[in-house]
Specification:
globular, mainly alpha, single chain, 0% strand, 362 residues
Length: 362
């Protein structure tokens, strides 16, 4: 695939004919025709032989030269190429992708914000945070703006970076992390927008277990302010916020039990209530507390008065698989012939003929 470049050292400009061909192939990838899909895959195989094709995918993504769906497909293909060919992809192309996607995390389209974000986190994971100087600073600046789309886009990237690279962040920038980044994230725990509260908590959770930044003699640096923020959100109306509150409290209890000792009775009462929460996700997180507390005599003593309330909740919400039911001696229908619908194969069809190469929840 031959590409005409712009002026030396100037901004890259696509060849209009090749750009048109790229968009046509991306549009065709949405077809349900097997014949068309075969042609699309063959075209992509040929195009991917030239690294410059990634510039065309990037251009379609960030310029939104066509529909939102086509731009998202371009981004998905670009992400897959990065994962598969990162170590042989020319450095200037990688840098262009990093710059363009970081500038586009605040687009109005939620789908394209997510697409740009997953490309950024993919590169950060492969390259390492220390090889992308300024990334965390740029994201922290973005969440301080008044642009709601930019705030949400930046937080979605921060959440994934903190989840995937917390140890890397602790090792490479411990001072900035403790003095600047974590306090900034903490400030958003009480934000008026539930999605922002959820993102802030999700960003903070991975650092609870990082011993290198959690000095037991100085809990006021991070853990105590976090704990105070969590206690203020125990009755939050948003289920995603409650789920993250429960998750964070379990982590604090597991890794720093001394900080929850004085408030253990209230913590137990809260976990009993969350075990009966209307949200199954919140219930599941609350059950992690009972697993973590196994063998803790203090919890056992404090829980005793609540057992008449907790046990029926656990029994009511217990879910059994077919295998569990058979093992328990119930509903063994092995002697009953299968119905045609029981043995009919289930075919899963990929969207737009473009298969994601990993299991990320993008």
């Amino acid at each position: 695939m031959c590409v005409r470049m712009g002026e030396a050292h100037g901004a890259w400009e696509p060849d209009e004919e090749l750009l048109s061909q790229t968009v046509e192939v991306l549009r065709a990838s949405q077809s349900h025709s097997n014949e068309t899909q075969c042609a699309v895959q063959e075209a992509l195989r040929r195009y991917n032989q030239d690294p410059e094709f990634n510039r065309y995918l990037l251009y379609v993504l960030v310029s939104q030269a066509d529909s939102e769906e086509v731009a998202a497909i371009a981004g998905l293909l670009l992400k897959n190429n990065i994962r598969l060919m990162f170590h042989v992809m020319p450095a200037d192309i990688v840098e262009d992708v990093k710059s363009a996607c970081l500038q586009s995390i605040g687009v109005s389209s939620k789908l394209l914000r997510a697409t740009n974000g997953v490309i950024i986190t993919t590169i950060a994971s492969l390259q390492g945070i220390s090889s992308w100087p300024g990334l965390m600073e740029s994201l922290c600046e973005a969440i301080d703006t008044d642009d709601a789309d930019l705030v949400l886009g930046a937080f979605s990237v921060l959440e994934k970076v903190c989840e995937d690279s917390s140890q890397d962040l602790v090792k490479t920038m411990p001072h900035d992390l403790v003095e600047t980044i974590l306090p900034k994230l903490m400030a958003f725990v009480g934000h008026g927008e539930p999605t922002v509260r959820m993102y802030a908590l999700s960003c903070l959770c991975p650092f609870v277990s990082e011993q290198d930044i959690n000095d037991p003699d100085r809990p006021e640096q991070f853990l105590q302010p976090l704990l105070d923020g969590l206690y203020s959100l125990t009755e939050d109306p948003d289920e995603d916020v409650r789920r993250n509150v429960v998750k964070a409290l379990v982590l604090v209890y597991e890794h720093h039990p001394e900080l929850t000792a004085d408030n253990l009775e209230n913590l137990i009462q809260f976990m009993v209530a969350m075990t009966a929460d209307a949200s199954a996700d919140v219930q599941q997180e609350a059950c992690e507390f009972w697993i973590a507390a196994d063998g803790d005599e203090n919890v056992a003593h404090g829980l005793e008065p609540h057992l008449p309330e907790l046990v029926p909740i656990l029994v009511q919400h217990t879910r059994y698989t077919d295998h569990d039911i058979v093992l328990l001696g119930g509903d063994d229908d092995s002697h009953v012939p299968d119905h045609p619908k029981d043995i009919r194969p289930h075919i899963v069809r990929g969207r737009a003929g473009v298969e994601d190469d990993d299991d990320d929840d993008d």
